[in-house]
Design goal:
Layout (H helix, E strand, L loop, with lengths): L3 H13 L12 E2 L4 E2 L9 E10 L5 E4 L7 H11 L4 E2 L12 E6 L3 H4 L4 E6 L2 E6 L2 H14 L11 E9 L7 E5 L7 H13 L4 E5 L1 E2 L2 E2 L8 H4 L3 E2 L21 E2 L4 H12 L4 E5 L7 H6 L10
Parallel strand pairs: 4-5, 4-6, 6-8, 10-11, 11-16
Antiparallel strand pairs: 1-2, 3-9, 7-8, 7-9, 12-13, 14-15
Helix pairs in contact: 2-4, 5-7
Length: 303
């Protein structure tokens, strides 16, 4: 069963790239045999189902115009989706005359697609993915990954339904907020969350890093922000607004913080997926974690 946060994330994603031009007959489209549901989330701006399929066997050749146009994250998606047998680069002699191609490159129409859009055309004899930016290519590869179908029979080959997709976001800000001040989330959880946001083509991660309940950013200059301000007495079994104040001698065991190196890593991890991290640092209000660490900053100097 999906959890409530998962359902909310899916709802936000579907709103973030909701379609303005989608055919109504796509729920079940005949593709050279049994019906297959073409399901892409978020729903593309325009999607037309075409007859036939492109088989992902050893006969096709992957052609990428410039690998520099693909971030490491996009390359990972490409390999995960297609697992190509052979790649071709500009300037190389191609030994694959008349072989089906999967071609990926920049050069699409910015007026049509904007900076985050892409066009994907899957035919029986090849696949063409074009975009204006590397972010657009990343989004297009996420769509391609979702389109991959498993073999009809054991030992068969994966395949793609033939489609023509033109996609661009409906909203410029497609975001999610994660409050790690009130409830700290480990590094790996944040990373997996960013991974899912990229898969859903969301582009803003609002990271709530400080509040009364905890300070989550390493600081060499003010070390007690984390040694004191990042921890509180565990009262999670009590109602949020009815929790008693910490008493002298109680051990603060609930919390945590992120080292600066971890934050830098996650910022780059997000960037490669087209995601901007927007940090929230609450001052001067909501600053009791700071006051706990440095009581001299309070109005009366009392912790």
């Amino acid at each position: 069963m999906r959890t409530i946060p998962s359902l909310l994330l899916l709802l936000l994603a579907s709103l973030g790239c909701a379609s303005t031009e989608v055919r109504s007959d796509l729920a079940s489209t005949d593709i050279s045999g049994p019906s297959v549901a073409i399901e892409v989330l978020p729903r593309p701006w325009q999607l037309d189902a075409l007859p036939g399929r492109f088989v992902l066997d050893a006969s096709y050749l992957l052609v990428v115009d410039r690998w520099d146009d693909l971030e490491e994250a996009a390359s990972d998606v490409l390999w995960d989706a297609l697992d190509p047998e052979e790649g071709h680069f500009p300037g190389q002699e191609s030994s694959a005359q008349d072989r089906p191609l999967v071609h990926i490159g920049l050069g699409a129409d910015e007026d049509l697609l904007g900076l985050e859009g892409y066009q994907l055309h899957v035919a029986t004899d090849g696949v063409e993915l074009t975009a204006v930016t590397s972010t657009g290519l990343f989004y297009g590869l996420q769509t391609l990954r979702q389109l991959v179908q498993e073999p009809d029979e054991p030992g068969g080959e994966n395949w793609l339904p033939c489609v023509a997709i033109t996609d661009r976001p409906r909203f410029a800000w497609r975001g999610q907020l994660l409050d790690v001040s009130r409830h700290f989330q480990p590094f790996g959880v944040v990373g997996r969350n960013l991974q899912r946001l990229g898969e859903l083509k969301m582009n803003v991660f609002h990271w709530h890093l400080t509040d009364d309940q905890g300070w989550r950013i390493e600081s060499e200059r003010y070390p007690e922000l984390t040694s004191v301000g990042a921890w509180r007495v565990d009262r999670n079994d009590e109602p949020w607004w009815g929790r008693a104040e910490a008493q002298s001698g109680e051990e603060a065991t609930y919390g945590g913080y992120y080292k600066k190196s971890a934050i830098r890593y996650l910022v780059e991890f997000a960037r490669q997926r087209g995601i901007t991290i927007v940090p929230e640092v609450d001052v001067p209000g909501h600053s009791r974690a700071i006051i706990a660490a440095y009581p001299e900053l309070s109005c009366d100097g009392v912790q």
